[in-house]
Amino acid sequence: MIRQNIHLIVAARPNFMKVAPLYHVLKRQDWCRAELVHTGQHYDANMSDTFFSDLGLPPPDYHLGVGSGSHAEQTGAVMVAYEEICLRHRPDWTVVVGDVNSTLACALVAAKLCIALAHLEAGLRSGDRTMPEEINRIVTDRLADLLWTPSSDGNDNLKAEGISGERIELVGNIMIDAFELQRPQIDSLCVAERFGVERGRYGIVTLHRPSNVDDRSSLAQIIDVLIATSHRLPLVFAVHPRTRARLHDFGLDAALARQDGIRLSEPLRYNEFMNLACGARLAITDSGGIQEETTYLNIPCLTLRPNTERPITITQGTNRLVRPDTLAEMVDQALTGGLRTTRHPALWDGKTAARVAESLFRHSGRDLTRTCA
Predict the structure, then answer these.
(1) In this structure, what DSSP letter does residue 58 have?
(2) Terminal CA-to-CA distance of the chain, rounded, Å?
(3) For residue 373, is pLDDT > 50?
């Protein structure tokens, strides 16, 4: 049997976590060879390279070294660099994950070169096309030959957009696989002790979205609530570089630094953050992945966004959408047990990577739904 060559595209922090479980499953298969393609979209070692060691990944087979830039610059640069790789070392499959610019760029290259394309974490929709990630999701899903969804609402979204059900497979949430893959290392850490907080008696905070941190009034309102909350519950605030810069620009950093109940930190490595998350009583965030992880861990999560591409975490999880002006009320509900928690979504069981590998095996060698000259 001729081994199938599979390119796994990684670019930004969440990608590494999603690709790692799949890479480890595929490397044990005798029918394929998995190769890592690192676009370099995140070039800060704290935001990318450390994830290779944390997640047991080898150095990438190809490193495109794209770095930062505008959406157009980044997308275009990845397309040029990845096309060159594909022309020299054509894969049988390109597997893209998530919704970053590199996801869209590599999907476009694969589609135009008639390389079979699969999208892991397909079908997520926020309904907000002002978000660049939403555009990336929609276009990537239109191009992909095989769409692996994390939850049933993803299937519904794709079918509503006219995508054939033959291209859609519900496989579950790969982020849970990443967490369980690292569980022994995560559980071995004592990050809470480093911050002087007790397990089950602190909250975690992450903020980075422009709508929350680039507007002074919104950010100031959020900071006021965090300060008030810290009088009831110590908070560990992992401060994103963008947020740190805005706190300084708006003169809000000094007020935070004076609070005994708020522990400020640089962004944490995945294992460190998840060790901290496992012992948290509450999460306040505007991130995507944390909504899923807290649902899996049954921890109340307040998401500072008007919408989410992961509504399953609300209907079947512990997540709630909040605004700066409703955050205080929702914090109170969370701390007094007023937030209802429910069951885990289906197939969030740590076995998604195995289902994806089996799907790839079944589809390898089959004719694609689209044809190329």
Answers:
(1) P
(2) 26
(3) no
| 167 and 191 fall within a common domain | no
Query: CA-CA distances (angstroms) from residue 146 to 81, 166, 194, 238, 359?
Result: 24, 8, 44, 36, 9
> Residues 42, 208, 240, 363: which is the catalytic one?
208
Structural domain count of the chain: 2
Q: Which of 53-67, 208-222, 250-264, 306-320 has the lowest mean pLDDT?
A: 53-67
Asked whether 357 and 33 are in contact (CB, 8 A), the reply is no
Q: State how far the Cα of 73 lies from the Cα of 135, in Å rounded to an integer.
A: 16
Q: Is the pLDDT of residue 342 over 80?
A: no
Q: Do 166 and 200 fall into the same domain?
A: no
Amino acid (1-letter code) at residue 111 = A
Q: Is 38 an annotated catalytic residue? A: no
Element (H, E) at 271: helix 270-278
Tell me the average pLDDT of the chain. 92
How is residue 276 written in tokens?
Answer: 């901290």
Which position has the token pair 């579950």? Answer: 172
Same domain, 215 and 154: no
How does residue 299 score in pLDDT terms, banded at 50, 70 and 90? very high
CA 368, chain centre distance (Å): 28
One domain, residues 74 and 128: yes
The pairing of strands 301-304 and 282-285 is: parallel
d(CA 354, CA 361): 11
Query: Are 50 and 8 part of one and the same domain?
Result: yes
d(CA 353, CA 58): 18
What range defines the domain where residue 301 resides? 185-335
- Return the DSSP state at 32: E
Backbone phi, psi, residue 367, to 5°: -65, 140
Tell whether the torsion through CA atoms of 9, 151, 313 and 235 is positive or negative: negative
Same domain, yes or no: 20 and 162: yes
Q: Are strands 203-205 and 168-170 parallel, antiparallel or unpaired?
A: unpaired
Which residue type does 96 have?
V
* Residue 316 CA neighbour count, 13 Å, CB half: 14
- For residue 110, what is the enclosing H or E element? helix 101-112
